[in-house]
């Protein structure tokens, strides 16, 4: 063989091999409109493989579209930083293992596994009120300090693995002596850091599950690799610390739920919600009946005038109202705000994508979050050397877990009660009915039919008038209807007003207390 030709072939082969080895790894992500624009600034040649409009859902950003793109994995850190710096928020994209998985993520939100909602009744006041005073901000502070002492908690780093192990050990120690509590790590195939899951098995309704979560990883735009300094004191050591105090108080108080409770520390949130996606998908595949999810991502930096902001996009409106009711009832001094954070801003989005009821209470408004996150300066000191703000979230989360965790199985329950009335009205004549004792989590429906023209008024808590009411239905004849949603046990009152002479039949339907 000609040695010159052989040498040339070997050289060409080495160059080709080197080129292949140097080729950047391609990955698939989905992201919303705003983050997609940031990606195009970083990589102008990026073109979406598929784009879909989000189906209408209360709380979503108007006309938002989600895009599937293939990018260099090395671009994800830059994208994360651009979303943080330009859009003033975290996340913004979901990582997918394949193009097929990404296309699946663009499909409409999966059907909810729970055929019926929890009642959302606040009926465990004695338990909640006994536990709340036991919560201490000093315990939360210590956990924040301990977690932020790791060089970083990045999902591929040694210290990130060690941080996961530390949380597992800490939770195991706190739960010692409780045979109904287990702590395990959830292994992810594509990276070293594990998620941590603590389970308190329900006593007589264990098949229904309530989840409280936060992410255990951290990231920084300053440096890379094992030496990257990313203390993540607020993002999200504070969320893990708030959860840990919930666990401490439930164990110390001897609380044993009827439903199964799970506390979750998610790995790899900062790189596309990867840990929580794995877990939520596995729960969906197993048909696990998760009846409620709360995400605690950053709880200790008070950047706005309100105390707790409920984010309304990619969350469940009815459960958000339940959380607001918890705050109003148990923590009346807390000021509640509302805001939106966009596509995939934290792990609640992973559960929402699988069709589960999820809520995301946050430490500040969308534009006023902690300016130090994703840097070496996200420290306990830069949250004011305090954990009093995070304590508010611990108390809220405890109320959430106890109120949902203390209920029996969701089922069809008793049949709706139906009552029928009839009568006559002259012009201007009024007829009152009630109170109707209506159970939590049901609708009160009133239907008026007959001849002539009468108006129908409903009010919760006290009798309505023609000027004060919660629902009014009137028209040009006497076929009218009104519906009230009842979130907690209460009384409903009804008023009929003869706009013209009328012969009427009234039918009311509701779930009795």
From TrEMBL:
Disulphide-bridged cysteine pairs: 341-345
Pfam families with a match to the protein in the record: Peptidase_M28, PPC
Domain Peptidase M28: 196-389
Peptidase C-terminal archaeal/bacterial domain: residues covered: 436-495
Keyword Protease: yes
Comment on bound cofactor: Binds 2 Zn(2+) ions per subunit.
Origin superkingdom: Bacteria
InterPro entries: M28_fam (IPR045175), Pept_M28E_Ap1 (IPR012189), Peptidase_C_arc/bac (IPR007280), Peptidase_M28 (IPR007484)
Gene Ontology MF term list: aminopeptidase activity; metal ion binding; metalloexopeptidase activity
Cofactor: Zn(2+)
Amino-acid positions noted as binding Zn(2+) 1 in the UniProt annotation, renumbered to this chain: 215, 235, 297
Residues that, per the record, bind Zn(2+) 2: 270, 374
Signal peptide: 1-22
Record-level GO BP terms: proteolysis
Gene3D superfamilies documented for this protein: 2.60.120.380, Zn peptidases (3.40.630.10)
Keywords: Aminopeptidase, Disulfide bond, Hydrolase, Metal-binding, Protease, Signal, Zinc
Identification of the protein by name: Leucyl aminopeptidase
């Amino acid at each position: 063989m000609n040695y010159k030709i052989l040498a040339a072939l070997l050289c060409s082969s080495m160059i080709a091999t080197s080129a292949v080895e140097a080729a950047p790894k391609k990955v698939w992500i989905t992201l919303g409109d705003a983050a997609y624009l940031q990606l195009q600034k970083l990589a102008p040649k990026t073109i979406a493989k598929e784009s879909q409009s989000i189906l209408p859902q209360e709380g979503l950003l108007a006309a938002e579209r989600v895009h599937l793109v293939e990018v260099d994995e090395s671009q994800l850190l830059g994208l994360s930083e651009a979303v943080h710096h330009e859009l003033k928020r975290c996340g913004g994209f979901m990582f997918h293992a394949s193009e097929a998985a990404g296309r699946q993520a663009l499909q409409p939100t999966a059907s909810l596994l729970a055929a019926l909602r929890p009642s959302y009744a606040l009926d465990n006041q004695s338990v909640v009120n006994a536990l709340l005073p036991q919560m201490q901000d000093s315990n939360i502070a210590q956990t924040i300090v301990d977690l932020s002492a790791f060089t970083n908690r990045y999902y591929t780093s040694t210290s990130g693995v060690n941080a996961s192990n530390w949380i597992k050990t800490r939770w195991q120690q706190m739960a010692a002596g409780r045979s109904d509590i287990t702590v395990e790590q959830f292994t992810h195939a594509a990276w070293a850091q594990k998620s941590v899951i603590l389970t308190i098995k329900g006593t007589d309704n264990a098949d229904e599950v309530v989840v409280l979560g936060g992410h255990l990883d951290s990231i920084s735009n300053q440096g890379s690799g094992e030496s990257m300094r990313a203390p993540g004191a607020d993002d999200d050591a504070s969320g893990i610390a708030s959860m840990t105090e919930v666990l401490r108080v439930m164990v110390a108080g001897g609380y044993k739920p009827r439903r199964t409770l799970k506390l979750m520390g998610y790995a790899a949130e900062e790189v596309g919600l990867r840990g929580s996606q794995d877990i939520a998908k596995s729960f969906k595949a197993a048909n696990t009946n998760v009846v409620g999810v709360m995400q605690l991502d950053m709880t200790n930096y008070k950047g706005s005038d309100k105390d707790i902001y409920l984010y309304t996009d990619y969350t469940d409106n009815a459960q958000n109202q339940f959380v607001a009711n918890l705050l109003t009832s148990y923590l009346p001094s807390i000021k509640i705000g509302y805001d939106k954070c966009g596509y995939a801003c934290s792990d609640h989005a992973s559960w929402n994508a699988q069709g589960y009821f999820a809520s995301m209470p946050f430490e500040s408004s969308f534009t006023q979050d902690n300016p130090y996150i994703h840097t070496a300066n996200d420290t306990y000191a830069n949250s004011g050397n305090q954990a009093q703000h995070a304590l508010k979230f611990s108390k809220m989360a405890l109320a959430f877990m106890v109120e949902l965790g203390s209920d029996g199985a969701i089922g069809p329950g008793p049949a709706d009660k139906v009552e029928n009335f009839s009568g006559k009205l002259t012009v201007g004549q009024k007829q009152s009915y009630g109170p109707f004792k209506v159970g939590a989590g049901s609708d009160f429906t009133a239907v008026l039919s007959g001849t002539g023209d009468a108006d129908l008024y409903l009010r919760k808590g006290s009798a309505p008038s023609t000027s004060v009411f919660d629902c009014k239905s009137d028209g040009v004849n006497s076929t009218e209807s009104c519906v009230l949603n009842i979130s907690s046990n209460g009384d409903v009152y009804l008023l009929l007003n003869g706009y013209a002479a009328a012969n009427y039949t009234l039918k009311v339907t509701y779930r009795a207390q």
